[in-house]
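Entry for the shared binder. Reason: the reviewer on the internal report wants the predicted structure included alongside the sequence.
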Amino acid sequence: MAFQWLNSLDSASAKKVKPVSLDKINCSLHSKPEAKQSGLGIYNTIFLDMRVAITSWSAETNTDITPKLMKNILWYSGNWIEYEKGNLSEQEMYNAMANEYHLKPTDLQKAIADVRNSIKINQEVISLIRELKEQYKIRVFGMCNISKSDLENLQTKFSLKDWELFDRIFTSNTLEKRLQNLGFYKQVLKETNAIPVETIYVAKSFEKSIPAGSLGINCIVYDTLENLSQKLRNYFGDPVGRATSWLQANAKKMFSTSDVGVTINENYLPMLIYELTHDRSLVDLVEYPRLFNFYNGDPVLTTEVFPFDLDTTALGLKVLTHIDYDTKMSIMDEMLNFIDSDGIIQIYYDPSRPRTDPMVCLNILTLFHMYGRGSELSSTLDYVHSLLKNRAYLNGTQYYCTADVFLYFLSRLFSVAPDVHERFATLFAQRCFERFGAEGDACALAMRVVAGAVAGIRMYVDYERLLHMQEPDGSFPLCWVFKNRKTRILTGNKGFTTAVALQACNAFRML
């Protein structure tokens, strides 16, 4: 039975579920949206390490105590730690640490007062958290290793509006535990009734994030505001809505580009964007009367004359509707003249370029099976099966960059060829599962998630990694899809990455 090999697997990350059909995934951007859903799950709470809300403080004081010693006192002194936990009064702390470091209590008191006065609040972090709280109706709890006196001082640094952003602030002084201790987070979870998997903790250090993470809390270790903003928006935001908005805002501006910085005006990826979104307004497409060319205009970074090719033509005949049925049939008849001695369909309408590529084979097979003529390319299909069986696609091909492109294009073929899907199903599912957790850019991960969905496999780890790559404006990063056979120059399109990531989100949600 298909997929029976998966039954013994006990994995919540890549489990077997009912397969998804591609024709149900590729929905119009203008169709009625589904209920709003967060990116990685249902999140409703932020735990914020208050150190993240402090943009700066200075260990420079108007005393003889050096900055290095001041930092050692505040970070490592056992007496300071006991003071923060409420086990020492302020005066007891001054006396104990003066004895510990051979200082005058009055000098230490003055130095600590200078440090307190130097504290500045990170207003950008506070504004970000407020925006998210207002937009997504989440709860925000502050956490801090801090004494009662220092908390009162910290409060004076905030405006009343900013301080009221926090539903409550938990401190080492009130809980008698530090943020480095597991018990601190157990107590906070208990008192807030927060569910760990629905909670995001923004920590200042790994030392604090590890005990929280052990309880199932999702942890972000703060490094920059930009990264924090991206990660939090990807947790709380709707990836589909954000990606859709970006595509619409960038309609007809999503040009392909190369890794040498040259813009490439081509037809292939824009047609795939149209196929994925069913929104013709997003891209400018050339309606060729018969054969299609990869380049929309003069060739770039290649030979001066670039022939029409079967790959782009097959995609154009599948996606666009301006060519009548009889003309399509005659074009397909002509394609059959470009089969090599092994029975494999070729790339170019040019006998001087007798080349083949597995991805091109899949694209042309999709067209032929779509029109009930798949049997005319049986040798090409057998070749594809052998590539899948023997994993010959793992390093990409001479024209396409990644292994996941092969599985993705194969899933496209299944959408129009149920008989091919039935023949390939078990092997295809095995190969998809083998890709689970492999390295990959956003485009590769999105294609992998889609292929997994068609195989009935929930590629959760890859899906989660993909969502973390969504950029603040809602797009997904530029990724390389093609490579030039001779120059090895790479080509990609940010619009295509975003469109296929949108498809991956829809596919994963449907599992």
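Summary line for the report: The chain is about 50% helix and 10% strand.
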